[in-house]
Design a protein that fits this description.
Molybdopterin biosynthesis moea protein, domain 2; HD/PDEase_dom; HD-GYP domain-containing protein; HD_GYP_dom; alpha+beta; 3-stranded mixed beta sheet
Length: 362
């Protein structure tokens, strides 16, 4: 299969990877043939990339670090709990919500089990979902990314659970923010910005009232918008004054936000997102944690369609953990844009191809 921007797909193309609704259920499943109507509807729903079947790349399959079933169960759990809080905001005044922490412990243990069995796989977040589901899918992606960093740091079981619960629930304060503030396309007023920023404290207050959620997990909600140089909020903390869990969640949050389409912009490619993050090391983010994070993320994920400096285009067929910016590419078109007679592969890490670079993701 190959991943393409929605502007490059056409009627008759067949979906190779399912697209999900906000609650984790399938919207369009693998094997569905696209029509003009489907394509337009997907654009309206905020889907900007698709995985498409292609006989030349049928054997190229992106491997996620967690199973589809694990992801579906996690998104469903987040969706049910978060929408309950949105619909019943008075619940935040309760001392403790029954089974709240235990439900998310169970969810993250499933995620952790999958992560632990695939330690050497570079993270490739390949799930596709409607834009209205961003809040719920984002929570699961942040937990996955944070979990990868926690494992790389050698956290013990207790630390992993504290980090994982904090990552799954880091944005829970947003359930108390008027939904219209989430997707404003205009610049926020000072009052709107202050209201939005207060979600960190609301999330912290909600989580610390739960008897089965650690207070350090709650600090992920409080501090994920703090920045390493002290320019964040709500308390303008800097450096190591920010809890390490929150510093990890901050990186995961921004990375997944960048590679996701939002109402006010298109998604970044993983390579552009990682470039942005690295440029912000020790300014917005802890540089050492950032380096660790980037060692475990696929800059050019498998099945990405790319253009090379040689003029060829192709699909990433393998990634190289030792040089994440030098993957193996299956060439599909010549320099002049014509299809090659027979697809062939080049390893950008080999000496003979060292002068060739990836120019952009298509």
């Amino acid at each position: 299969m190959r991943k393409l921007h929605i502007t490059s797909v056409k009627p008759g193309d067949v979906i190779a990877k399912s697209i999900f609704q906000e609650n984790g259920n399938v919207l369009l499943g693998m094997g569905v043939q696209l029509t003009e109507r489907y394509i337009e509807r997907l654009k309206q729903l905020g889907i900007d990339t698709l995985y498409i079947q292609d006989k030349r790349t049928d054997d190229i399959i992106p491997e996620d670090v967690i199973r589809d079933e694990t992801r579906k169960q996690a998104v469903d759990a987040v969706y049910k709990k978060m929408t309950t809080l949105m619909d019943q905001p008075h619940m935040k005044r309760r001392t403790s919500l029954p089974d709240f922490g235990s439900a998310f412990q169970k969810v993250f243990k499933e995620i952790l089990q999958d992560l632990s069995s695939r330690k050497d796989v570079l993270v490739n977040l390949s799930n596709l979902h409607v834009m209205d589901g961003y809040f719920f899918h984002h929570a699961v992606n942040v937990a996955v990314l944070a979990g990868v960093v926690g494992l790389a740091k050698g956290y013990n079981q207790q630390q992993m659970l504290e980090l994982g619960i904090g990552a799954l629930l880091f944005d829970i304060g947003m359930t108390q923010v008027p939904k219209e503030l989430w997707s404003l396309r205009k610049e926020l007023t000072a009052e709107e910005r202050q209201r939005l920023q207060y979600h960190t404290e609301e999330g912290f207050n909600l989580l610390r009232s739960q008897h089965n959620i650690s207070v350090v997990s709650a600090h992920c909600a409080l501090q994920h918008h703090e920045r390493y140089n002290g320019t964040g909020y709500p308390r303008q903390l800097c450096g190591k004054d920010i809890h390490e869990y929150a510093r990890i969640v901050a990186i995961a949050d921004v990375y997944d936000a960048l590679i996701s389409p939002r109402p006010f912009r298109q998604s970044y490619s993983p390579s552009d997102a990682t470039e942005y993050l690295f440029a912000s090391g020790n300014t917005y983010f802890d540089l050492e944690l950032l380096k660790l994070f980037l060692q475990h993320v696929a800059i050019f994920p498998i099945s990405s369609t790319v253009q090379l400096s040689s003029g060829h285009t192709g699909v990433v067929s393998r990634v190289n953990p030792l040089a994440v910016n030098r993957p193996t590419i299956r060439i599909l078109t010549n320099e002049d844009g014509s299809e090659v007679a027979a697809p062939f592969e080049i390893n950008l890490y080999d000496k003979e191809w060292m002068s060739v670079t990836i120019v952009k993701t298509l």
